[in-house]
């Protein structure tokens, strides 16, 4: 198993933030680069004792003397400061007699062409390249060009660096462009030394740039080695820049988590496979507001198929989970859908080291951190199909079996994996002929509370022609068709791939009472309004792809006043518009409701408990005073019909709960 590469969503990436951060390093800056003991593993790999070595910008570092003592005798130390050179000569004249010291500006040195086979730079590049201003870049280019002149072909520039954003970008631009091979290695020993001393552990890198003979049409070679595994060749330098930034951001996140509580900040970290880059775990870090919890630190593994539940899939739910667990800090772990896991013990073994990096400060050494879950069963997830939609991007249909629950089939858009687009319950039935079990759809199951609310609204007009805009996987359309037999339903779906998914995977079967039209719902309604077509009920169950608007259902165009006028003209005299409204922008929500009320004399609102959703029932009837009582009567009739058709004695819709959350607008 390859090691896990952290990736944080916390935004530490602004240039202004990092410029301020590095400006505050002060005199402790060079402690971050590590000493010989931490760097020797990488230095010995890329610098040979027989190399003629130049230590560029040696300063008062002990690294030269340390290398000398283990056999690196052919060494020249250069620094622009005459005082430093004199001090170092006096300090090491007896213990390192063969080592040379010269005062020199390395952007314009007097060394011979090809004089050295290796140049060691420990923090010098970082000190010189303070920013990406034209003057500084010009100086650094002179420095790099001079390195290219004094190094022989096959020679190596070994640079110990913190790789600020402007530095890594310039290194990965200049050297490949000039025909050099570049390898970026992470020095975890230097970081561990910082961590053990109690100081801020910042990522330290050793960049090895190897000079090649100039060749036409040279394809740049860039490699990385970040976690001790095999060296990986990368296709683009942008990938390296991104990986370096993620490691730096993760280091700062760890520092913040160890130095302070982060209650209410909803921090998230992805742990990715360092070989293929795929996300393996998503870690949600939750600090409880209470400081008196008996459990200081714990980890909760969410079983397959339950990650979208309120308790595990929302910030407020996870806070409640931490409170229930009695944990001051709880790491809530989501498992990735395209990964395999053996059991809880295997996950615990894989995560133990990483979660300790996120532990609160002052946690006693060798603390045994409890791993919690919903029983011992991880659940099961099976991908049935993966495809691409021109409107919604990549999607997946998967069967999940959460522990202790029914099997479910879900449609997920990978651009928004926290939202279940469509869900159906699966029944296991025996095929007597083939003597094996098969899965079928349980058509009586509706997973979404707002879908049941919309069905309840049909009690006002339980017969006639219905138009549904937004099919998805088709559970709402199929449910209405199967259990409200006096209606004829036409569904309009923009995305043809979703129609195929509904038919193939969710049991959607069109017939004389259930039709589907592929097209834009806006255009379809405009056309029907022009033709004078009438519907008893129009339902909007369509989401918005525009995340910049504070309304995710329906799209803004569907509630523009000019379009609502077309909807009203498509309805019968006592016709009904039912729409699922998900709007976090209160001003926008008020404006939408105002436009609706201007066109529909009677409007009821059913708030969905513990959700942002509310379902609006907009009637052209002017009898607003009777609307609520009519709704309640119709709800009882719908319940009778559903109970009869589903052959159940229990109410399908909780009438008292619906009426409690129902209000006239």
From TrEMBL:
User: What are the recorded Gene Ontology BP terms?
Assistant: methylation
Q: Which CDD domains match?
A: AdoMet_MTases
- Cross-referenced Pfam families, in alphabetical order? Methyltransf_25, Spermine_synth
Occurrences of domain Methyltransferase (ranges): 55-140
Q: Which SUPFAM superfamilies did the record assign?
A: S-adenosyl-L-methionine-dependent methyltransferases
Q: Which domain of life is it from?
A: Eukaryota
| Keywords for the protein's UniProt record, in alphabetical order | Methyltransferase, Multifunctional enzyme, Transferase
The answer, when asked if Transferase is one of the entry's keywords, is yes
Gene Ontology MF: a single term: methyltransferase activity
Q: Which family does it belong to?
A: Belongs to the methyltransferase superfamily.
Instruction: Give the protein's recorded name.
Output: Methyltransferase-like protein 13
């Amino acid at each position: 198993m390859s090691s896990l590469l952290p990736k944080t969503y916390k935004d530490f990436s602004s240039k202004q933030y990092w410029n301020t951060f590095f400006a505050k390093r002060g005199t402790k800056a060079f402690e971050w680069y590590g000493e010989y003991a931490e760097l020797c593993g990488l230095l010995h790999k890329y610098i040979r004792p027989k190399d003629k070595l130049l230590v560029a910008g040696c300063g008062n570092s002990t690294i030269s003397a340390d290398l000398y003592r283990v056999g690196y005798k052919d060494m020249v130390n250069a620094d622009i400061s005459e005082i430093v050179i004199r001090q170092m000569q006096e300090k090491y004249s007896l213990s390192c007699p063969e080592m040379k010291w010269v005062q020199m500006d390395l952007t314009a040195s007097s060394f011979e062409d090809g004089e050295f086979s290796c140049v060691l730079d420990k923090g010098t590049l970082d000190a010189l390249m303070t920013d990406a201003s034209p003057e500084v870049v010009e100086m650094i280019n002179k420095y790099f060009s001079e390195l290219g002149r004094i190094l022989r072909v096959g020679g190596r520039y070994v640079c110990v660096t913190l790789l600020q954003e402007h530095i890594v970008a310039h290194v990965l631009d200049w050297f490949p462009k000039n025909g050099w091979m570049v390898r970026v290695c992470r020095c975890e020993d230097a970081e561990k030394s910082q961590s053990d001393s109690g100081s801020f552990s910042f990522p330290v890198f050793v960049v090895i740039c190897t000079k090649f003979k100039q060749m036409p049409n040279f394809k740049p070679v860039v490699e990385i080695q970040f976690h001790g595994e095999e060296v990986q060749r990368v296709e683009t330098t942008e990938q390296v820049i991104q990986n370096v930034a993620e490691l730096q951001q993760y280091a700062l996140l760890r520092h913040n988590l160890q130095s302070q509580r982060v209650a209410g900040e909803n921090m998230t970290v992805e742990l990715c496979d360092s070989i293929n880059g795929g996300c393996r775990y998503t870690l949600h870090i939750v600090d409880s507001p209470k400081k008196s919890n008996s459990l200081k630190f714990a980890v909760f593994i969410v079983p397959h198929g339950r990650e979208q539940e309120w308790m595990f899939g929302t910030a407020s739910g996870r806070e409640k989970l931490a409170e229930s667990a009695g944990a001051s800090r709880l790491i809530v772990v989501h498992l990735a859908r395209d990964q395999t896991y053996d059991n809880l013990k295997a996950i615990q073994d894989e995560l133990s080291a990483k979660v300790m990096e996120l532990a609160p400060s002052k946690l006693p050494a060798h603390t045994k951190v409890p791993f919690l879950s919903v029983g011992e069963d991880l659940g099961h997830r099976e991908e049935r199909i993966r495809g691409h939609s021109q409107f919604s991007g990549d999607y997946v249909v998967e069967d999940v079996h959460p522990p202790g629950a029914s099997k479910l089939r879900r449609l997920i858009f990978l651009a928004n994996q926290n939202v279940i687009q469509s869900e159906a319950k699966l029944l296991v039935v025996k095929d007597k002929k083939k003597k094996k079990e098969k899965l079928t759809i349980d058509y009586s199951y509706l997973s979404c509370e707002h879908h049941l609310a919309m069905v309840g609204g049909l009690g006002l007009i339980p017969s006639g022609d219905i138009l549904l805009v937004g099919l998805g996987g088709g559970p709402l359309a199929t449910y209405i068709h199967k259990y409200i037999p006096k209606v004829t339903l036409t569904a309009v779906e923009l995305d043809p791939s979703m129609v195929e998914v509904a038919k193939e995977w969710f049991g959607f079967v069109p017939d004389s009472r259930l039709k589907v039209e592929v097209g834009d719902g806006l255009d379809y309604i405009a056309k029907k309004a022009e033709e004078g077509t009438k519907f008893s009920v129009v339902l909007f169950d369509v989401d918005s792809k525009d995340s910049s608007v504070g309304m995710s259902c329906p799209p803004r165009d569907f509630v523009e006043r000019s379009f609502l006028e077309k909807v009203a003209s498509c309805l019968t005299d006592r016709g009904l518009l039912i729409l699922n409204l998900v709007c976090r922008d209160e001003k926008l929500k008020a404006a939408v409701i105002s436009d609706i009320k201007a066109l529909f004399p009677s409007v009821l609102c059913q708030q969905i408990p513990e959700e942002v959703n509310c379902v609006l029932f907009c009637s052209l009837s002017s009898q607003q005073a009777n609307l609520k009582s009519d709704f309640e009567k119709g709800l009882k009739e719908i319940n009778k019909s559903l109970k009869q058709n589903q052959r159940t004695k229990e109410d399908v819709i909780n009438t008292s709960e619906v009426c409690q959350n129902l209000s006239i607008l």
